[in-house]
Every structure is written in C-alpha cells, then in structure tokens.
Amino acid sequence: MADFEKDDSVVLSDEHSEFDGETGTVTQVMETMFGDATYTVSFEEGTEQGVPADQLEAADGDDSETADGDEE
C-alpha cells in the first residue's frame, strides 16, 4: 500500500468524486483507528477529505518511492 506525506503531489482515482483524475496536494494525513491512513487532498477547485491510499497515486514528476506498488 502506498503511503503519502503532507505536500506530496497525487492523482485521485475515485469515479464518485468530482475531482476524479485530477492532480492535487496532500494537505493532511490522518490515521484511522485501524492503523490505516486517510488523506485530505487540496485541488484548485476544492478539497476532498478522508481519501484512502488506494485511491491515490503519485503524480508524474514526484520522486517518491511509493510511485509504484499498490500491494494489498
């Protein structure tokens, strides 16, 4: 599973979101009571909260080691 940090540039993949396919910036990382992380991602037109890591991928140009790997 990919882990992202604050200020990482990410692409949202959620067909139910108005921001699906858009690139945004992680503004907050929250840990759930199950030990998983959810993210708040800021886009030009707004914010998406409670986004799980499996709906995010590193944006092109991000040198993060988590750009590959979606292991579960």
Question: Could you say which structural class the secondary elements and strand pairing correspond to?
Answer: mainly beta
Ranges where pLDDT stays below 50 over 5 or more residues in a row are: 62-72
Estimated radius of gyration: 11 Å
> Any idea what the shape is?
globular
Helical proportion?
Answer: under 10%
Task: Give a short account of the largest sheet.
Answer: 5 strands, antiparallel
Topology order in helix (H) and strand (E) letters: EEEEE
Provide a count of the helices. 0
Distance between the first and last residues' Cα: 6 Å
Mean pLDDT equals 86
General description of the model:
This protein has 72 residues and is mostly beta strands. The protein is 0% helix and 42% strand. Strands 4-3-2-1-5 form a five-stranded antiparallel beta sheet, with no helix packed on it. The chain starts with 8 loop residues before the first strand and ends in a 14-residue tail after the last strand. The relative contact order is 0.32. The C terminus is likely disordered.
Secondary structure topology:
Blueprint: E1 9-12, E2 23-31, E3 37-43, E4 46-52, E5 56-58
Antiparallel strand pairs: 1-2, 1-5, 2-3, 3-4
Could you list some keywords that capture this structure?
globular; disordered C terminus; 72 residues; 0% helix
Q: Would you kindly provide a brief summary of this structure?
A:
With 72 residues, this protein is mainly beta. The chain has strands at residues 9-12, 23-31, 37-43, 46-52, 56-58.
